[in-house]
């Protein structure tokens, strides 16, 4: 019995937030992880997980009336290879840098956000105009980031002799640079919006760009695996939520055990590099295990 305590109400609100995310992206465990890791506070998470998981599962099942249970992205997951492992190793410092950079930029812009009501229409309109002009050259930068991630996951290795390799890299790197900048501009202008999908867009585009560069160098690598791992790593970094980053990103495509392993292999070292709190937590748990 949850009762009507403040703690119970907070758990229900957090679970409802996770349920909305779960239903939208057909990701029940990711929605529950969002509720527990990002919305709930320390002290209620263990109890809250017992509520969040069934609530998010029910919300997802209801959403199947529309989605029919299909994942948000449909990709072909390739098995492990030495080239892909090399790509995952190289991806760690790349996504750590991008995640920290995007997080700091967005925080900086929010701290300087336009707050005077009379200037909001002008500021938001100007941000929209800039975004629209940029989208004439890089169409995938518009929207919340879902289209950009879909484009990254759907990237194919271009013919080396056609000059398309350079064009593909320019497009992907354009998203990596422009998406966080335009998101920050929009937030600074006073508009409201999430940072989850932009994080996915930046990370997946970076992973796909790295894969294309390695392919052009003669290294066989899975573009989709690097794109998924990059998306999860940047998301985990910007939100400071490794479990959410891993589980939610994997559920977007449900792309097999190898992709899940790749996500874990990239996200965990990225978190160790970028979060002192997480490093201290891991060190404390290791010490406790050693004392047993």
Automatic annotation (TrEMBL):
Any one GO CC term of the record: chloride channel complex
Transmembrane segments: 6-27, 48-65, 85-106, 118-140, 160-178, 199-217, 257-278
A single GO molecular function term of this UniProt record: chloride channel activity
Compartments, record wording: Membrane
Keywords: Chloride, Chloride channel, Ion channel, Ion transport, Membrane, Transmembrane, Transmembrane helix, Transport
Keyword check for Transmembrane: yes
InterPro entries: Cl-channel_core, ClC, ClC-type_chloride_channel
Protein name as it appears in the record: Chloride transporter, ClC family
